[in-house]
């Protein structure tokens, strides 16, 4: 065991020139696989009254689950963290949709969600890679009975606009229920992975494509035929997307 341990370490690393060490950390970052960022969308806040929360206008809510681990490069040493922070963002860029009635000075409207107010002061240590990681929006999963499973929550009548989340995945059923282009908007998205049932027919796929084009248009986005958003259809488990991205 001692011989095996010695082969897994490189003691002279700290004596290498700084430039070489930084290149090694950059290489480690490049080899770090993408992660799946699970978000949960519920169409009605009434689904969560069992959490003893105040009903919030019966509007859709989105929860970001806690991430189980911090990327290794961010806590190995000071040098590795400096390299990692060039790529990993802290928290999420979420705004309201002004077209739904919020004025900049309308504090009551801006903070329509008591859940959001309670969560905003906690769980800020969520690091993710905008260029690699895939945001997975799911309308079928359920959070545990403890609110600590959620790191962020957004909701209320003002609607939600996501920014700087490049790669997004959701099932076609979730896409139909989440109000993309109406209650939910997305800015900066480059790739939309749509998960279809395994036994999806050609006719069902064609209908899904038409619906997605309409939803993207409502959201002010254009598909890969014009520019911006590349739409990819997949079947199978969402985790398989990460293998494709590696």
Secondary structure: elements and pairs:
Blueprint: H1 2-7, H2 18-31, E1 36-42, E2 61-65, H3 78-84, E3 88-90, E4 93-95, H4 107-110, H5 114-120, E5 127-129, E6 134-138, E7 150-155, E8 160-163, E9 167-171, H6 172-177, E10 184-187, E11 191-196, H7 202-218, E12 230-235, H8 240-245
Order of helices and strands: HHEEHEEHHEEEEEHEEHEH
Helical percent range?
Answer: 25-40%
| Total count of strands | 12
Number of domains: 1
Number of helices, counting only DSSP H or I runs of 4 residues or more: 8
Overall SS class: alpha/beta
Sheet with the most strands, sense and barrel status: 7 strands, mixed
The coarse silhouette is: elongated
* Unreliable stretches covering 5 or more consecutive residues: 1-6, 46-53, 99-111
Proportion of beta-strand residues? 15-25%
- Distance from N terminus to C terminus (CA atoms, Å) equals 32 Å
Mean pLDDT figure: 75
- Which radius of gyration do the C-alpha atoms yield? 21 Å
- Enumerate the strands of the largest sheet in spatial order, edge to edge or round the barrel: 7-2-1-6-9-11-12
